[in-house]
Amino acid sequence: MNTYTHVNPLHPPITNSHQSGFSALGCALTGISDASLPSNWRRVPQDPTGRNVGRHSQSPITFQMRGINVMGIAVSDLIGRGPAETPRMLVGGHDMYLQEQDGIFLCIRWPGYRHSEYSYKIALNGRGVSRAVLGEIVGEKIKIFYQAAKYSASSNPRWNVGVQNIRLEQIVLLSLWNTHENYWQAEMAIHA
User: Fold this and answer.
1) Helix, strand, coil % in the chain, rounded to nearest 5
2) For residue 135, what are the contacts with CB-CB under 8 A and spacing of at least 6?
3) Cα–Cα dist 157/172, whole Å
4) What letter does residue 32 receive in the DSSP assignment?
5) 101: closest CA among 143, 58, 132, 64?
6) DSSP code of 39?
């Protein structure tokens, strides 16, 4: 079987060590800078959702616990507090988002698990959703991702999830970024 490999004589191949980290998605991939995170946190590197068309029409939706000057909230807090407590513990917990949308697609990307597509449809009622309810929904989707990923092979040992590796209790939701149209991507960090 012959495989065809095209070599452009005018432009030799570029090795990974010489490729730029620039992305047309800009902040949608970089989000909150590592410098703004506590020293014992690591931001989970993000890559695009596989689509690079459309526009970024909406600002990021951030998550921060009330009374704490650090962006982010532990996923375990989002899924464990309940609908009465979550709005009170989040800054702007009652703020409304995604009005006039019937649904969005949530994309969860994690280094080493690119072989699996983690994209979830979140149905909305067209009237919007509060930051607190959205945080709870995203927290549940991150938990579903985690439960599936901990039994999957990873190509990046540094980012393996599971009891002996990165635990669900260590995952922090920082924000959601509108990558294009009605696709949103979770920005996360882990704490030691």
Assistant:
1) 25, 25, 50
2) 63, 73, 78, 86, 90, 173
3) 19
4) S
5) 58
6) T
**Beta-carbon contacts of residue 109 (< 8 Å; ≥ 6 apart):** 44, 46, 47, 49, 118, 185, 186
Residues 71, 75: Cα–Cα separation, whole Å: 13
Give the residues across from 190 on adjacent strands: 42, 171
The distance between the two most distant Cα atoms of the chain, rounded to a whole number of Å, is 64
Give the pairing of strands 96-97 and 103-107: unpaired
Determine the Cα–Cα distance for residues 144 and 148; give it in Å rounded to an integer.
Answer: 6
pTM for the full model? 0.80
Q: What is the pLDDT along the chain (192 residues), one digit of tens a residue?
A: 444 455 566 655 555 444 444 444 445 444 556 677 899 999 999 876 544 445 557 899 999 999 998 999 999 999 998 889 999 999 999 999 999 899 999 999 999 998 766 899 999 988 899 999 999 999 999 999 999 999 988 999 999 999 899 999 999 999 999 988 899 999 999 998
Enclosing H/E stretch for 9: none
